[in-house]
Amino acid sequence: MRRSTMLLSTLTVTAVVATGCASAAPAAPAADCPTPPAAGFDTPDGWIGLAAERPEEIAFVVDTGDSSVAARSDRDQPLASAVKVVHLIAYARAVADGTLNPDEQVPVLDWQRWYAPGTDGGAHIAALNRLGIPNDGTSPLDPAATVRLDDMVSAMVRESDNGVPDYLRYRLGDDALRAAASAAGWTDFTPPTLVGTNLGALDPTVDRDDLWSLAQRFAFDADFRAGYAQNVTPPDEAAILEYYDRYGPRGSADDLARVYRAVADGSLGAGVDVVRRQLEWQSAPEPFTAMGFKGGNLPGVLTHGFEFRGDDGRTAVVVWLTHGMDAADYGAAMENLAAHQQLLIDAATDPAVVPRLACVA
């Protein structure tokens, strides 16, 4: 298979702190809003400037419990891998009702069939390496190897493996994904295919309105898989950016914020303990005892979702969605993830930041 020249990257995050309880009253802008800072990707202030300069590209929700702010939060836009939190909830609910056993030994080849080499920024192979599954950089060395289902799901969260959510969709069905989203307050969820989306980017001749069929054929038709996209020219840069903006997983900042609130405050119900165990794998500095995070990126798209919990019941939620970036800006955003994440940390911890964001909302 010909590899796309625009590979996807795995998104990670360092430990962060936030304060407060969810569902705070909206903050009012400062009485005299200052001129927004200069737009840029390399500082937290620069990202505030970007929100002011490019409102068509950015939506966000910040809720610290003490104050909240939202900008264009009901607007449908690309989510990239941030959508995988819904697949995680579907898995957790299936574990809770006995449909799935987290200790099940899944043949690694059943996972491998959903892997499209060259389209995930190395996430799948990184997951195999973390889980101690010997491989040649593309495939496991032992075709009879198995992996614990719960460990396989962890690769969807930690390395942002794309095959796991499609595996779960195939195994559980679309109704289970819709029910999972609905349980978290997202009522109009459309199940995406992460593998199909990336395959569709490589070949503009396929039916892009039925990417799930493409993903399933790639997974189960060995001849099709071996020859896929070898005789086509992938779209140019502009077409790639437009493609991911249109065909990638979609939703709103409000949708993701409702999901993270349901996880943080426990209103998700059945399976919330499994979701927290998987999502909250990174340490949480004081005053919180748990932090959950899932981000995502596709060409032109960068997304973040956070939830924080404390032993005193305090919670915080931060969601930020960016799309429509050209290749240069996307590269700059990916090179400066720490600056962007620092803004989100500041928004959750520094009372002065929410009014500043209200000025550019």
Describe the structure in your own words.
The protein has 361 residues and is α+β, with helices and mostly antiparallel strands. Helix content is 42%, strand content 12%. The protein has 16 helices and ten strands. It has helices at 44-53, 84-96, 108-112, 123-130, 149-158, 163-172, 174-183, 194-202, 211-220, 222-227, 237-247, 253-265, 272-279, 327-335, 337-349, 353-360, and strands at residues 58-63, 68-71, 77-78, 105-107, 146-148, 250-251, 290-293, 296-298, 301-309, 315-322. The strands form three sheets. Strands 1, 2, 7, 8, 9 and 10 form a six-stranded antiparallel beta sheet that branches. A hairpin with a 4-residue loop joins strand 1 (58-63) and strand 2 (68-71). The longest helix has 13 residues, at 84-96. The relative contact order is 0.23. Residues 1-22 have low confidence and may be disordered.
Top keywords for this entry?
361 residues, 10 strands, 16 helices
How many individual helices?
16
Percent strand: 5-15%
Characterize the biggest β-sheet.
6 strands, antiparallel
The helix content, as a percent range, equals 40-55%
The SS-based structural class is alpha+beta
Kindly provide the radius of gyration, computed on alpha-carbon positions and rounded to a whole number of angstroms: 20 Å
Return the average pLDDT rounded to an integer.
90
Distance between the termini: 44 Å
Uncertain residue ranges: 1-22
